[in-house]
Hints:
2 copies of one chain form a homodimer.
Chain A: H1 2-13, H2 20-27, H3 31-37, H4 43-46, H5 54-60, H6 67-82, H7 88-103, H8 105-126, H9 133-159, H10 166-178
Helix pairs in contact in A: 1-2, 1-7, 2-3, 5-6, 5-8, 6-9, 6-10, 7-8, 7-9, 8-9, 9-10
Chain A binds a DNA duplex through residues 19-21, 29-33, 35-36, 39-41.
Amino acid sequence: MIQAHAVRLFTERGYDATTVTEVAEAAGVSPMTVYRHFPTKEDLVLVDQHGQLVAERIAASPAAHPLVRRIGGALIGSAATLTGDDLTTDKQFLLARLRLMISTPALRARHLDNQYAFQQAIVEALGDDDTDPDAAFHAQAAASACLAALHTALVRWAEDEGRTELPALIAKALAAAFGDDMVEGGPVAAGDQPRG
Amino acid sequence: MIQAHAVRLFTERGYDATTVTEVAEAAGVSPMTVYRHFPTKEDLVLVDQHGQLVAERIAASPAAHPLVRRIGGALIGSAATLTGDDLTTDKQFLLARLRLMISTPALRARHLDNQYAFQQAIVEALGDDDTDPDAAFHAQAAASACLAALHTALVRWAEDEGRTELPALIAKALAAAFGDDMVEGGPVAAGDQPRG
DNA sequence: ATCGCATTGATAGTTACTACCAGATTGGTA
DNA sequence: TACCAATCTGGTAGTAACTATCAATGCGAT
């Protein structure tokens, strides 16, 4: 509720031009209550109810598959559940938040930090042996490239006002980056992940 | 001068526990002067004198080479000039800034935003045709993975107190992510960049 | 010596965020 | 119904980052 008013006001007047007090007034609560639920002003846009289960999804995927296939499949699957057909309201809300995240420097920075933490979680979920530093480098690069593909797809999706299906966009971005045989539904390659 | 005092104080007392006013006092200037030179407190750590020439280096590299080879080579070359032998003072300063950037959330977020802007600059410097969206996806993933390798190498370097040579670390991270034939000095692969 | 001109400084104000404490609301129990 | 505990909410006061505006200071050139 508070978050909905916040995103609306930020979109109408701009993020920096809107004070937390104004958000509180619009939501009919005190500024204290806002700070109680959202520790920082940025959280009013960045926090989302649907928690991140992607890391678990990756850990549950078959370890024999290549890294980008495991990560990419989890990303596509999560996007599909997130932007389902009967969730148009949530979809518009997600679009509004996304637009703010992309265009507002403070929000973009915090978002990228979250994404980086997510990347670390993915690398841990992959559960490769920590003893081999090469494997860690490997996983970092694969996770980073997958998240870059996700981000590129999200930006494209926002520019498109959500008309294109998000899972398809992610799959397209992954295919462009890694090759068609790497995305879910395609054939399983014999090799592992990005190697020229 | 101001920046040196800032990094020292942030390291000694912690970033959040140090006020800009204290930095100003240590440097013997007024807080206004600090804000004049460094618009935000974060800039006291993030701003560096040696500007980013890497994008130009990439643009100057042979376009026939694979993407990660072009980007990776530029990163290694820049790191080599940045941490040269007779720059021990700068090296210690860089290490101190790096430690702060890694451990302080606000600094890390701003740093990642800078890195993302850098990624966009790399993609533009690659100068692939903008008409093909697949090529854009492609370049984003390649640049992102290279920067992830760079970041992983930087973290390792900082943990190692700068004892290992930074260019070698970057080359190792790139080799682990993309294969030995992709880093500068290795053979030129016939293909392009990451494709399983 | 004086005139630009750039750098610095002081003052006052806005806003995000915190610490602390007081009242209200809710839900379970006798 | 009456009561108690816990959680939610609100007010007050304070800190610190950052901004706008204007005054003072140094400094080289004519």
